[in-house]
Structure formats: structure tokens, C-alpha cells
């Protein structure tokens, strides 16, 4: 089995060593590097080319958000998960902007963290569900405009609505009774038609276009 | 010429000559005339009587003029110049060669300026008057000396009036100086107080930020580390083991504690405020409010304001939102952050709640204290806070401030 190669960046020695202890017990993961600041994380990403970089947001010197953007530039194949204390929609937005594929809080349970890593490694973005709900609640619907949404097929719209609740491809596939691979193709088409780069931005557009009942968020 | 008894002719002519001599004082001439002329009814000298009346009137006018002149001098100019003018007028009026004033404060003025010291004059040719002003609270002593002739009682009365006037002027001058000093003192203390408040609020913000950082970097990270270690330990024990249950409950306690610490950090000083700015911090604050419909508009174009302005506006919003949620029973809150023109920014928090029945009464219910503190904080950055409310008509709190404000105390 191919193990995911992980880089961990956190300027708190205690938290970092705790995280190493948690991940070391997962056979599918291999911790290839540790960094105590953003600069080191960027440098290590360039040389080690990890599959995933787990970044704390608040770090001395270059913070996790800057580091994320830098890593996306210099080691594009390295996917980023922010692991932070900040239970905040704005940090989530900033993380998405910086190119992160995942966002989880530091008090996340082990199983959930391993799930996030697995999802991101599989090419899906995964953000804290509660934060996503709050993010989408902020978006005020603007029914006018958005001709891009009009170009979506019925099935694509169906899948787009499900993206707003943070469902994974597998979950969507299960509830719609189709293959996960098909969902993946649909999602790619949706992103292409809406001219966005990730599922989160697509979800935001869906909410803005009024496809989703805001009260259900 | 009429016939007169022998010897009377000469005396009468002399008296007539005296009465026509303008250079001599009228009072003394009258005395002589009364002695000399045997004409008690004045029938024989209507012209003389007219002259007497005319001179009386002149003397009265001179006395009045003295009083009015002195008053005008004091109304017009500074004390020293007025005093010099008054003393000169008094000396002129009384025919004295020297006049001087000594106040209770031992201040002295004299005319002419290079004359003999106050009080060092020959007593026989000197007069002293004590003037009282401010209901006796201020006393001055006027001395005139070197008189060419004795003063009439009416003249002395006039000088007494003027002396009282001078005492009154000195009293009011002293009050004015005192008031000026008090006002200056009060202003200085106000400035001190303002600086103190500024320093205290700055210290409070610094303290809050420091504690929030310490919590984030210290306790929170230790708890996270503890949580991860418990999780790692949990993996090594089987689900059936009693240790598993203990570890699980430990994990829940740690997660709860992390939640508490996170809440404390947010309440002290939200990280958004420093890292992402006022807009993000306000949005995060609004995210935490449930059960109330919220609308938020910001047209700052994503630009950051100065630290002190962001912190102050955030605290105002915090207070206003807490009031709206706790007391107003509103179903909707509208928040607007706008740059009014390039130099100023405004933050308006409006709710549709029951309003504040009496803005002045709200203080008694404890609502007004926080808002007064916010008003103080706005004033410190050169801004203003306006609270509008009507019973049943909701409440709106509007804070305005110049964008150029920077205070080192807040950094």
C-alpha cells in the first residue's frame, strides 16, 4: 500500500509532537518532515515533495496562510490542510484563497482528522462542516444574474446543491445511486462551467444564486 | 449807589468783589458773604443767589463726573492703567498733590507714580478713606494728601463712593483672576484625566491582547498536545479495556476545555481583529449570534483601518450588539460599516427591538454605563457616538471617527 507522505508545520513544540504521536499510529501515513515556521515548511515542501502539508495558521515569521500560498506555487502537487485553533469563517475563507484543500480545527478527533487527510489525498477538498455552514449562511442570495448556473444540467445542479452541505463524492454517489467516478466527472464539469477552481467556490455560487434554502444551512 | 450805614459800604464792595472772583472757592466765599452781608433773605442780591445755585450745580456735576469717570476707566482698561487714571482724577477733584490706594493684598498704586510713599504723609494735610466691595469682602484704603484746601462733606462723600467703587472693581478683578485660574486648573485636570483614561484603555487593550495570545500559545497548545496524546494512547488499548473509557472521557474533557479557552480568547480579543481586520472580526462576532436575523454591509473595500480605530469600533459594536441581543428583544440587527468620505468612517448598529424608553433612565438599568464608556472611547479618538431610540421603534447606535487617528497607547 502506498503511504501518504506528510509534512507537519506548527511552531508549538508540544502540539507538534502530539500531532506526530497521533499520526504515527496510522499505518497509511508517513511523516516525512516537521517545521516550526512557515519558511521551513516551504523549503521542506520543495525538497521533500510531500503529498500533504498540515499547517498551523498562526506561526512566527511566515504564517500558515502565506506558507500555503507559497507551497502551492513551488510544490503544486503538495496539497494543503490547515490545522488551527481558529474556529472562524474568515480564516477558512483566507485558507481557501491561499489554496488550501482542507481546514480542520485542532480539537478534531483522530478518526475525523484521518478522514480529512484521506479525502484531501484523494483529490477532494474538505473543510470543517460547521464552518462551511456558517460561511454559506453569510452569503446573501442574489437571484439576478449568474447565467453560468443556467448552463448546468439538472443532474449537475443536484450535485451542486449537495456540495453546499460538504458531502464527499462518495456520499453524493451513494445518495444519488451513481458511481463515485461519475460524481467526480460531474463535479469537474460544474467547476468548469462556473469557472471556479474548487468545490467551495462552487458551493458559494450556488447559495448566492438561491439554489439552496438558506434556512437549511 | 444806595445809602448804607457808615463803614458798611467798603465791606459790601469787598464781598461783591470776592463773589465775582472765579479763582476762589465758592464755599468759602459763601461763608464770608453770610457773615458780612446783612441781607438774610437775599432780596438785595438775586444775582449772587443765582451764582450760588449755579456753582452748587457745578460742584454736584463735578462729583458725579468723578464717579462716572472712574467707573468708565475701570470698565475700559487693565487694572493698573485704570487705577492710575482713577487716582489722577481723584487728586484733580480734591485738589490733592498726591493720591494712593492700598489693597488688602498689600498691592499699592499711587499718583503721581514717583510721589511719596503711601501713608508717609503729614497727617494734617491728609485724608484717608476705607472703601468696601464684594459685601465687605474686599477693602481698600485711599489716601489723599497735600490738599490745597479742606474738603467739603459732599466732596468727601463722592470720594467715599469712588473708593467703594475701586474696592468693588478690585474684588471683581480678583474674582475674575481666580475664575481664570480655576478654569485653567479644571482644563489641566481634564487633560490629565483624558490622558489617564487613554493610558488605561490602552493598557487594558494591551493586557487583553497579551492574555489572549498567552492563552492561544500556552494553555490552548498544551491542551491540544494533551488531546493528541490521549488520542494516540487510545489507539493502543482495545475497545474492551476499561482504560479506553477513561481515555475517551479524558478526551471529551480536554475538547471541552479547548472550547472554553477558544471562547475566552474570542471574548478577550478576537484573533481576526489583529490578523484580518475589523470587518472580519465583526463578521465573526455576528456569526455567533443566533435566533436574530442579521444583515451586514461594509464598504471599506477591504482596506484596513488603524489599529486604534479598529479596536475602538469593534468594542462599540460588541457593546451595542450585546445590548441589542440581551435587552431589546429584537428580531433583526443591521450593521453598517461605511467610509463617509475619505477622512471619516462610520459604524451603525440598528435593531428593531423595543427601544430604550428613556435614554437617561437606561443608565439605572445598567445599560447606559457601557455605552457611556464607549462614548468616552470614541471621544478619545476624536470621534462621536450617537444613540437614537424611541419606545417600540428600535435603537440605532452610530459611531463616527476620523480615519487618520493613531495613538501609541493602543499599540
Question: What do you see in this structure?
Answer:
The complex is a heterodimer of chains A (217) and B (411). By secondary structure, chain A is an alpha/beta fold. Helices cover 52% and strands 13% of the residues of chain A. Chain A is built from 11 helices and 6 strands. Chain A has helices at residues 13-24, 38-48, 64-74, 89-98, 110-121, 129-138, 147-150, 154-163, 169-176, 180-194, 199-208; strands spanning 4-9, 29-35, 52-55, 79-84, 102-105, 126-127. A 6-stranded parallel sheet of chain A has the order 2-1-3-4-5-6, with helices on both faces. In chain A, strand 5 (102-105), helix 5 (110-121) and strand 6 (126-127) form a beta-alpha-beta unit. In chain A, helix 2 (38-48) runs parallel beside helix 3 (64-74) and helix 6 (129-138) packs parallel to helix 11. The radius of gyration of chain A is 18 Å and the shape is globular. By secondary structure, chain B is of the alpha+beta class. Chain B contains 11 helices and 9 strands. Chain B has a 5-stranded mixed sheet with strand order 5-6-7-9-8. In chain B, helix 5 packs antiparallel against helix 7 and helix 10 runs antiparallel to helix 11. The longest helix of chain B has 65 residues, at 153-217. The model of chain B is unreliable at 1-36 (pLDDT under 50). Classes of the chains: A alpha/beta (217), B alpha+beta (411). At the A-B interface, helix 1, helix 4 and helix 6 of A face helix 6, helix 7, helix 8 and helix 9 of B. Chain A: Pfam families: GerE (PF00196), Response_reg (PF00072). Chain A: InterPro entries: CheY-like_superfamily, NreC/VraR/RcsB-like_REC, Sig_transdc_resp-reg_C-effctor, Sig_transdc_resp-reg_receiver, Tscrpt_reg_LuxR_C, WalR-like. Chain A: Keywords: DNA-binding, Phosphoprotein.
Amino acid at each position: 500500500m502506498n503511504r501518504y507522505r506528510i509534512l507537519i508545520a506548527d511552531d508549538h513544540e508540544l502540539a507538534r509532537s502530539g500531532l506526530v504521536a497521533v499520526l504515527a499510529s496510522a499505518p497509511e501515513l508517513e511523516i516525512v518532515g516537521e517545521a516550526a515556521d512557515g519558511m521551513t515548511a516551504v523549503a521542506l515542501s520543495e525538497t521533500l515533495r510531500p503529498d500533504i502539508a498540515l499547517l498551523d495558521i498562526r506561526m512566527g515569521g511566515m504564517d500558515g496562510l502565506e506558507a500555503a500560498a507559497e507551497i502551492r506555487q513551488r510544490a503544486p502537487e503538495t496539497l494543503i490542510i490547515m490545522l488551527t485553533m481558529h474556529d472562524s469563517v474568515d480564516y477558512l475563507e483566507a485558507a481557501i484563497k491561499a489554496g488550501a484543500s482542507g481546514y480542520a480545527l485542532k480539537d478534531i478527533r483522530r478518526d475525523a482528522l484521518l478522514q480529512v487527510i484521506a479525502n484531501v489525498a484523494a483529490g477532494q477538498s474538505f473543510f470543517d462542516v460547521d464552518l462551511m455552514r456558517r460561511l454559506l449562511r453569510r452569503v446573501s442570495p442574489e437571484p439576478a444574474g449568474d447565467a453560468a448556473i443556467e448552463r448546468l444540467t439538472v443532474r449537475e445542479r443536484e450535485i451542486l446543491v449537495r456540495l453546499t452541505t460538504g458531502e464527499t463524492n462518495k456520499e453524493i454517489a451513494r445518495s444519488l445511486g451513481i458511481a463515485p467516478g461519475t460524481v467526480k466527472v460531474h463535479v469537474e464539469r460544474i467547476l468548469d462551467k462556473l469557472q471556479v477552481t474548487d468545490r467551495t467556490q462552487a458551493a458559494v455560487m450556488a447559495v448566492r444564486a438561491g439554489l439552496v434554502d438558506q434556512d437549511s444551512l | 449807589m444806595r445809602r448804607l450805614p457808615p463803614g458798611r459800604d467798603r465791606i459790601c464792595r469787598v464781598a461783591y468783589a470776592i463773589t465775582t472772583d472765579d479763582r476762589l472757592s465758592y464755599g468759602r466765599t459763601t461763608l464770608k458773604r453770610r457773615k458780612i452781608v446783612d441781607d438774610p433773605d437775599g432780596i438785595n442780591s438775586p444775582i449772587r443767589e443765582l451764582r450760588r445755585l449755579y456753582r452748587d450745580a457745578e460742584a454736584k456735576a463735578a462729583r458725579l463726573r468723578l464717579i462716572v469717570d472712574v467707573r468708565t476707566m475701570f470698565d475700559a482698561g487693565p487694572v493698573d492703567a485704570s487705577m492710575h487714571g482713577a487716582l489722577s482724577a481723584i487728586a484733580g477733584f480734591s485738589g490733592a498733590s498726591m493720591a494712593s490706594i492700598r489693597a488688602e493684598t498689600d498691592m499699592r498704586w499711587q499718583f503721581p507714580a514717583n510721589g511719596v510713599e503711601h501713608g508717609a504723609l503729614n497727617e494734617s494735610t491728609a485724608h484717608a478713606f476705607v472703601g468696601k466691595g464684594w459685601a465687605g469682602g474686599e477693602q481698600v484704603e485711599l489716601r489723599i494728601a497735600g490738599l490745597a484746601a479742606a474738603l467739603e462733606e459732599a466732596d468727601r462723600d463722592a470720594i467715599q463712593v469712588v473708593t467703594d467703587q475701586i474696592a468693588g472693581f478690585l474684588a471683581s478683578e480678583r474674582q475674575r483672576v481666580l475664575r481664570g485660574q480655576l478654569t485653567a486648573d479644571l482644563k489641566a485636570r481634564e487633560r490629565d484625566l483624558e490622558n489617564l483614561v487613554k493610558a488605561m484603555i490602552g493598557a487594558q487593550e494591551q493586557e487583553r491582547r497579551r492574555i489572549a495570545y498567552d492563552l492561544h500559545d500556552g494553555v490552548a497548545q498544551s491542551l491540544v498536545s494533551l488531546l493528541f496524546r490521549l488520542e494516540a494512547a487510545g489507539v493502543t488499548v482495545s475497545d474492551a479495556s476499561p482504560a479506553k473509557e477513561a481515555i475517551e472521557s479524558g478526551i471529551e474533557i480536554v475538547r471541552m476545555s479547548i472550547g472554553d479557552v477558544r471562547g475566552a480568547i474570542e471574548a478577550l480579543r478576537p484573533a481576526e481583529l489583529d490578523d484580518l481586520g475589523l470587518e472580519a472580526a465583526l463578521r465573526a462576532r455576528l456569526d455567533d449570534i443566533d435566533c436574530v436575523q442579521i444583515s451586514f454591509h461594509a464598504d471599506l473595500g477591504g482596506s484596513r483601518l488603524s489599529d486604534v480605530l479598529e479596536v475602538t469600533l469593534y468594542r462599540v459594536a460588541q457593546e451595542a450588539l450585546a445590548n441589542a441581543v440581551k435587552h431589546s428583544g429584537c428580531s433583526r440587527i443591521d450593521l453598517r460599516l461605511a467610509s463617509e468620505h475619505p477622512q471619516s468612517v462610520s459604524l451603525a448598529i440598528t435593531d428593531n427591538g423595543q427601544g430604550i424608553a428613556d435614554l437617561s433612565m437606561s443608565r439605572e438599568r445598567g445599560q447606559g454605563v457601557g455605552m457611556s464608556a464607549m462614548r468616552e472611547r470614541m471621544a478619545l479618538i476624536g470621534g462621536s457616538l450617537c444613540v437614537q431610540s424611541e419606545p417600540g421603534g428600535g435603537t440605532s447606535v452610530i459611531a463616527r471617527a476620523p480615519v487618520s487617528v493613531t495613538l501609541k497607547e493602543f499599540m
